[in-house]
Specification:
With 119 residues, this protein is of the alpha+beta class. The chain is built from 4 helices and 5 strands; from the N terminus they run αβααββββα.
Length: 119
């Protein structure tokens, strides 16, 4: 996998009291590091292998602090990085080998985000 430049600069410090009880929404290249840390397949999407343990630790810290950590539930994937690529929407836990995420979030996750902001 290729490194994502977004991961190290966006990993939050959950030891900061500002994050206590806050809805923390993940997007960008770091999402695939969190997916892989959870044991999910990421196809050929970008992952920072050296940040997998950090992702696991941050998820555990979020859980302990009551921080709601949302990752996309569905994503739009493509078979190559090209405007003419084949694409489809899949569940985040069903990214097939050889495919990469072309648009980070799908419609289901957008709907869930809206519902979370309402309650």
């Amino acid at each position: 996998t290729r490194p994502s430049a977004q991961v190290p600069c966006q990993m939050p410090s959950l030891s900061n009291p500002v994050f206590a009880g806050v809805l923390l929404l993940h997007s960008g290249g770091m999402v695939f590091t969190f997916y892989k840390a959870r044991g999910l397949g990421v196809g050929s999407s970008l992952v920072e292998e050296d940040k997998l343990e950090l992702a696991k630790k941050l998820e555990e810290m979020a859980k302990q602090k009551g921080v709601k950590l949302l990752l996309p539930t569905d994503v739009i994937i493509a078979d190559k990085f090209d405007p003419e690529a084949n694409s489809k929407t899949v569940s985040a836990d069903a990214i097939p080998d050889g495919w990469m995420v072309s648009v980070l979030i799908g419609l289901l996750f957008v709907t869930l985000m809206r519902l979370n902001w309402l309650w």
